[in-house]
Records
---
Amino acid sequence: MIGAIKNIITYLIFYFQYPIVESHACRQLTAEHFDDICANTLGQRLSRSAHVQSALMGILPRLAACDRTRFSERYLSSALSYLMTCLQRKDKDRQLALVTIGYLAVFIEGDIAQYLPKIIDFIRSNLPPKDPSAKKRSVAAPDAAVFVCISLLGRAVGRSHLKHELKDLLESILAVGLSPALTTCLRELATRIPSLKKDIAEGLLRMLCSS
């Protein structure tokens, strides 16, 4: 699990730090056949192959990056419906779906706004509850993918659409305990949403003082 966490974080940092070099011919072909590619890709949603499901989740953000407007108008609803269904599956599918949702948000930005309440509700359900009386319920430690998704959402639309929601989640996020995924997430939120810096700093101080 520690290796998987490091791989996710390393890829996240590398992806945004270095530019992508693409083939002009490949991009032109993709643009010409964009609708066919999207339709055929989403047509594999019901496949029972784990390899197909993994490939599908890797392709969807790339298609959104190729043509944000067309993807958002024609395929985003189907893609998000599929990914939200994947969140109810086994751990590996859930982790991949969370990261895929985060990358989609980065590429389509504000177009994901109408789907954010359901995404945040799922994230909240995978974090410790804020209500002290509810802490008696058993809540499993969240996957590292939860923090990757929060990081990507913060990068994509945090300041414009999720500032208050993420502030509300901070207490639950900090209750998880320090980890590489959590520290990366908090650094990203503090960078992208400056108004959260004070809350994050105070939360970390409380965490360190109580450890």
---
Amino acid sequence: MAALTRLLPVGRQAPPVEWGLAERCRPGGTESGDRHVVQPSAAGVLLAAVDGLGHGEQAAVAARLATAILEEHADEPVAALVERCHAALARTRGVVMTLASLSARDLTMSWLGVGNVAGVLARADAGGGAQQELLLLRGGVVGQKLPHLQPALLTTAAGDTLLLATDGVRSDFADSLAPGLSPQQLADRILARHGKDTDDALVLVARVHGDVR
């Protein structure tokens, strides 16, 4: 099931972020344990993909709790958000997640992953190439055991595209990047081509628009 592409204003001085979402339950499932967050704040916008451990209702419970916390505290740094979720999820199955916080002031992006939710930043201006920044994922489970939390900070520019995908999507999903596709078209394409039949799957795609200078 795919949501419509949205154009999200990010603060007064930042360009909007256009985003699209594609998601589905594993075959035979009734509720997905994969959830997303696209939450504006005074600082910018928080984007996240969250995967509750296992399948079904209990996975969904953990993922819903995590996304509710992220939405409520979206202006906090990503490491603090992971720690906040970790404390709240102690009595659940736990989740894995990747967060990306885009600053409205200078278009820097701080991102952090715990577990196996993949993150890719595809550069719009790569000198004719296909330059991609890959998020370094750290093993662990939010709610059970955290790794050392060390967010990475990147500069972004108009046209850069962020892709987040849960492990229900094969790891070669970035091969489906193609010029001219909207975030929604890209999310749908990735899910259709790379989604697994054995797990819930979610793809979140967000593109930076405009220029703050």
